[in-house]
Design brief:
Helix 4 links the parallel strand 7 and strand 8. The protein folds into 2 domains: 204 residues, Rossmann fold; 179 residues, Glycogen Phosphorylase B (Rossmann fold), CATH 3.40.50.2000. Helix 1 crosses helix 14, helix 7 crosses helix 12 and helix 10 crosses helix 13. The strands form 3 sheets. A 7-stranded parallel sheet has the order 3-2-1-6-7-8-9, with helices on both faces. It has a 6-stranded parallel sheet with strand order 12-11-10-13-14-15, sandwiched between helices. The chain starts with a strand and ends with a helix. 43% of the residues lie in helices and 17% in strands. The protein has 390 residues and is α/β, with parallel strands linked by helices. It contains 15 helices and 15 strands.
């Protein structure tokens, strides 16, 4: 099977969507399929024969993110030469519109993964944010209606789209986690690197340092806990548009020696942070899945997260983590419980790892492969490779 992935972002930019594309493309190739990626160009990005880059422009309020210009000479002819079976877009916007147009021209099935609540990111729009939110919701819902298949990371997201009147066929396929890579990580590297003592308790956050991740909320909770527990630290891994403001607040609180910014870290090196931490804290209320939760669980970390769509689909409250309502006192109480109860943390560690095993990237890729095959059959044919072998 020949598959075309379209996305408004890709490496070297790092995000949950990018990691999802990378994991699925790698595992689908391991299953014998060819995967081509159509994505924006970035300065100094590595050449890859399976990645087609489009010109792009930087965004002033989101460092590192670039806006693709979905134009390429003879793109239709180039697509025909690749002899694709499936077009799968990971965005409903610029590259998604191109994917939709090409699917129509080439009579190919169009699949769309609804990765993100896009309307929760309109604070990056410099004006008319309420209008931008309404438009974003309408654009994404209308795009779903034009697809042959919509993939959602959780059943919660699927129900949300159905309630909005989306009747397009939908399937749930979470992004999996590559558990094998954790065997190459180190549980001591982070503690040695930052000179933590054995008795120090490390809270970990991995993700974008942006308003939509609710990090000011987390910082406020941790500030209160640090007054109670002198051996408590918070490690923040990632970058984003609000990093400078977060750093300023931490300095104002005189906590820069206890709230540590690791910056953007290579995905393989992030595993060392997971393995070296004690608790994974995730305050976001906008997640459709929360891939970092699974990544933390693969390292055996108990998780505290909000009782919302994405986290609630993964975390079994009281078994492998704690789910709380999005109020400060609730999060504070749940985090305090984990800090104070080492025996419970150890029990949750084993359960968290077992949960991550259920979401292996290999199994998720096989599930996606099965959906592609059913979609091709329902469209009245089989993949070109299957047809040539018949």
């Amino acid at each position: 099977m020949r598959i075309g992935f379209f996305s408004d972002s890709y490496y070297p930019y790092i995000s949950g969507v990018v990691r999802s594309i990378d994991l699925f493309s790698r595992e689908l190739r391991a299953l014998g399929h060819e995967v081509y990626i159509f994505a924006p160009d970035y300065p100094d990005c590595d050449d890859d024969p399976y990645v087609y880059r489009f010109s792009s422009v930087p965004t002033p309020n989101a460092p590192g993110f670039r806006i693709p210009i979905p134009l390429m000479p003879n793109i239709t002819e180039k697509m025909r030469s690749l002899n694709l079976d499936i077009i799968h877009t990971h965005s409903p916007f610029l590259m998604g519109r191109l994917a939709s147009a090409l699917a129509r021209r080439l009579s190919l099935p169009l699949t769309f993964t609804y990765h993100t609540k896009y309307e929760e990111y309109v604070h990056y729009v410099p004006f008319a944010r309420k209008t931008a939110k309404r438009i974003t919701i309408k654009l994404t819902r209308d795009f779903c209606k034009k697809c042959d298949m919509v993939i959602t990371p959780t059943a919660h997201v699927q129900e949300m789209l159905k309630e909005d009147g989306i009747e397009t066929p939908m399937e749930v396929v979470p992004t999996g986690v590559d558990i094998k890579k954790y065997g190459d990580g180190s549980s001591t590297w982070m503690r040695r690197r930052y000179r933590f003592n054995n008795e120090d308790l490390i809270l970990l956050y991995v993700g974008r340092l942006g308003e939509e991740k609710n990090l000011f909320f987390l910082l406020g909770v941790v500030k209160e806990l640090m007054a109670e527990f002198p051996d408590l630290y918070l490690m923040l891994v990632g970058g984003g548009p609000d990093e400078k403001e977060f750093r300023r607040v931490v300095v104002d609180w005189d906590l820069e020696h206890r709230i540590i910014f690791a910056g953007v870290v290579n995905p393989q090196k992030v595993i060392d942070y997971y393995l070296g931490a004690d608790i994974f804290s995730f305050p976001s209320v906008t997640e459709t899945q929360g891939l970092v939760i699974l990544e933390a669980m693969a390292a055996g970390l108990p998780v505290i997260a909000m009782d919302r769509e994405g986290p609630a689909s993964i975390v079994n409250n009281g078994v492998d983590g704690i789910l709380v309502q999005p109020e400060k006192e609730n999060f504070l109480e749940g985090l305090r419980f984990l800090v104070e109860n080492e025996d419970k943390r150890q029990e949750m560690r084993g359960n968290a790892f077992k949960k991550a095993e259920q979401y292996s990237c290999v199994q998720m890729a096989k599930r996606l492969e099965g959906i592609y095959n059913k979609l091709l059959e329902s469209k009245g044919g089989q993949s070109k490779e299957q047809g040539s072998q018949a």
